[in-house]
Amino acid sequence: MTFDGFPDEALVFYEGLEADNSKTYWTRNKAAYDAHVRAPLQALLDEVAPDFGTPKVFRPYRDVRFSNDKTPYKTHQGAVVHPEGAGAGSWYVQLSADGLLVSGGSWRLESDQVARYRRAVADAVQGSRLAAEVERLEGSGWTIEGEQLTRVPSGYAADAERLDLLKRKALHATRRWEPAEWLHERAALERVRTSWQDLRTLNAWLADNVGATTKESRR
Q1: Which of 84, 96, 111, 179 is surrounded by the most beta carbons within 10 Å?
Q2: pTM exceeds 0.85
Q3: What is the spatial distance between Cα 142 and Cα 202, in angstroms, rounded to a whole number?
Q4: Rounded to an integer, what distance in angstroms lies between the CA atom of residue 167 and that of residue 159?
């Protein structure tokens, strides 16, 4: 299947799901989800996979076991690519009634990864490289996000260089677009491809300086 854009029916599907997040709505509209959300997203991912790697499409069902919010379905569809062997740094794309979102970097780092990340940020060479890349991305319209401490991390001075980066426990860059005509066309593919290309340096820095966790995987 060739990607030709996300049809308007995909946005309509999520608008309806936001209004009625129930099994009844989902069952009645499952065919629309498969045809207008899942299929075009998979087609897009198939086209970018040769350049970025094998994607993982997230399940549409929420994990409500430990949440006060018991609505059963996600009101967006996301997919992620973890470059093989990188350990840290990835690409993400998401479709919802709000439009298209692309992102890249690391959303959650284990304690051993956070320690390596902070050592690299404190390093004069590697820290300066990350700071320059973050500044470049912000100047290009990206929003820098990720869990961040309010206090100074243990072992670092209050006047340490790149303190904002040192406080982070995760780091990713995100770009959002509201629904527009290009979303229904092949141009959406190029937005994702170009945006992910723009995140290669950030992901490479994370792979080189943070890498994979040595902690046992969580269930």
Answers
A1: 96
A2: yes
A3: 12
A4: 12
Determine whether domain 8-209 maps to CATH 3.30.930. yes
CA–CA gap between residue 122 and residue 52 (Å, rounded): 29
Give the span between the Cα atoms of 26 and 72, in whole angstroms: 10
Q: How confident is the model at residue 57 (pLDDT cuts 50, 70, 90)?
A: very high
Q: How far is the C-alpha of 51 from the C-alpha of 47, rounded, in Å?
A: 8
pLDDT at 7 over 80: yes
Q: Is 91 exposed, middle or buried (0-12, 13-18, 19+ CB in 10 A)?
A: buried
Task: Provide the 3-class DSSP secondary structure of residue 144.
Answer: strand
Tens digits of residue pLDDT in 157-174: 999 999 999 999 999 999
